[in-house]
Specification:
By secondary structure, the protein is an alpha/beta fold. It is built from 24 helices and 12 strands. The strands form 4 sheets. It has a 5-stranded parallel sheet with strand order 2-3-4-1-5, with helices on one face. Strands 8-9-10 form a 3-stranded mixed sheet, sandwiched between helices.
Length: 523
């Protein structure tokens, strides 16, 4: 086969080409240069983030006879025979997961390398090993021969026994940022003479979800069309939702155009768009609108006064039975239209009519938003700094138990407003005064920080714990952790007093001017 797919063709050939994992690259290079190699490494992280590529590079460099500063010479016998080397053994644990395969491996590692200094075993999807295979592997992993190095890779670290984790140097690979993905797509598209628009590049990064392999696979597939790749090309190939589609949907809700809203959602559903994808796009757009309103006072959807409430309600539609019915009924509840229910029967299924009745769209109450503190990026940075001042692993372990009990109390008391946020958060750093939690979704982090003062109050009231809390999404937490690792030897973290948090609130007069006295109920 002459043609090589893009993600294989552009696999990194040295550490300089490896992108998105600088924290791992730096440590591995220093260990190679100083000749302080471990006998076992464990690479964990999402798919397509460079685990196998890094393992291959590592194996190549440590076996190179003339490497300079961690760069292989590509001229020695080991480098020239790298792709066909019998000393670099790749094993798929998904299909070689029994005790017999491990016993065979245990026998083979006793043999000396044929050409290289080390025999490197790269074992992918290591979490797939059976219990008996793990037991047979433990002693070998702990004390292999001096000429053997193990590199284990997994996407599901929670399935790896703690006895294995303690025998390896662990490296956590993170999702690659959208900016880095976009730069690589543009670079490779230029090299391959693929014409692509900036909007299409941005959409591919969204579809790839932090995976370089996925991004290049999508680019590879679309390039077969031999035409300029734009947003319409991706939409027809992958059934994506454009920002224009989402904006049109939300404007129909804002304007009370029920018929248009139902027709748009029906068309999206008929096009095979996954309901979770629709929810993601709508939530992202609503969140951006909420941020714009909090920072500038302007809103793209001025009649949707309870955007925070809409976000919470739509979030509950994830992974439910009949999700499109729930999405329709939720949006119907928040439309400002006054159409009688009978006028929309032609564009609504019977199930939707029933959901609409239960949502009380005929006589809907409009409730003014409560006062919410503006959590600025400066305040987030201060709280992250203060958490690191006296961070303590013992405090963290204690607080994780308190956090679990806190969530349990909220669940029993049916405090759903906070429960949906807190359940998706993990405790990362704890000091006597501050706590950092992380969440996978950017939406969750923003909403958490908007409600931070309320969460702190609940934590004090229900658990007698008084701490300042801040939430970072995955990329933000990765950056904060990386910055701390880089700075802790040269920077002294000093406690910073927080400035007063300003608050904003819709006034009764402005609400009445928008909607009239008869539509307003003040709670």
């Amino acid at each position: 086969m002459d043609y090589k797919v893009l993600y294989r063709k552009y696999r990194p050939q040295n550490f300089a080409d490896l992108v998105g994992q600088d924290h791992i690259k730096d440590i591995l290079l220093k260990s190679i240069i100083s000749n302080k190699l471990s006998h076992a490494y464990l690479f964990t992280g999402p798919r397509g983030t460079g685990k196998t590529s890094t393992a291959k590079l590592f194996a190549k460099v440590i076996n190179c006879e003339n490497s300079t500063s961690g760069v292989p010479c590509n001229k020695c016998l080991s480098c020239l025979n790298y792709n066909e080397s019998t000393d670099i053994i790749e094993i798929d644990a998904a299909s070689n997961n029994g005790v017999d395969e491990i016993r065979e491996l245990r026998d083979n590692i006793k043999l000396l390398p044929s050409l290289s200094k080390y025999k490197v075993y790269i074992i992918d999807e290591i979490h797939m090993l059976s219990s008996s295979a793990w037991n047979a592997f433990l002693k070998t992993l702990e004390e292999p021969p001096n000429h053997v190095v193990f590199v284990l890779a997994t996407t599901e670290i929670q399935k790896v026994p703690i006895t294995v984790l303690s025998r390896c140097q662990r490296y956590d690979f993170q999702r690659i940022s959208s900016q880095i993905l976009a730069e690589q797509i543009v670079k490779i598209a230029k090299a391959e003479k693929i014409k692509i628009t900036s909007d299409a590049v941005e959409e591919i990064t969204r579809l790839a979800d932090g995976s370089m392999r996925d991004a290049l696979s999508i680019l590879d597939q679309l390039s077969q069309l031999e035409m300029k790749i734009d947003i319409d090309t991706i939409a027809s190939a992958y059934g994506i939702l454009t920002l224009q589609d989402v904006d049109l949907l939300l404007r129909s809700v804002n304007n009370g155009n029920v018929s248009e809203m139902i027709e748009l959602i029906n068309r999206i559903q008929e096009n095979g768009i996954d309901s979770n994808l629709l929810l993601n796009k709508v939530l992202e757009r609503l969140l951006q609108s909420l941020i714009n309103y909090k920072t500038t006072g302007n809103s793209e959807y001025p009649l949707l006064v309870n955007i925070g409430e809409i976000i919470f309600e739509l979030e509950k539609c994830y992974n439910r039975n009949n999700p499109y019915i729930l999405i329709k009924s939720t949006l119907l509840k928040h439309t400002t239209g006054k159409q009688p229910l009978g006028n929309i029967e032609s564009v609504m299924e019977k199930e939707i009519i029933q959901e609409a009745k239960t949502a009380e769209i005929i006589s809907r109450e409009i409730i003014l938003p409560t006062e919410l503190p503006i959590i600025s990026q400066d305040l987030i940075d201060i709280r992250v700094n203060n958490a690191y001042v006296d961070a303590n692993i013992t405090l963290k372990r204690e607080f994780i138990k308190i956090w679990a009990d806190f969530i349990d109390v909220l669940s029993k008391q049916n405090e759903l407003k906070y429960l949906s946020l807190l359940e998706n958060c993990a405790v990362e750093v704890v000091s006597p005064t501050n706590v950092i939690v992380s969440t996978e979704y950017y939406t969750n982090s923003v909403l958490f920080n908007e409600l931070a003062s309320e969460i702190e109050s609940k934590l004090k009231d229900k658990m007698q714990i008084e701490k300042k809390v801040v939430c970072l999404d995955s990329p933000g937490w990765i950056k904060a952790k990386s910055d701390y690792i880089k700075n802790k030897k040269t920077k002294e973290y000093i406690y910073i007093t927080e400035p007063e948090i300003t608050k904003v609130c819709e006034t009764v007069n402005s609400a009445e001017s928008l909607f009239g006295n008869e539509l307003i109920e003040i709670n």
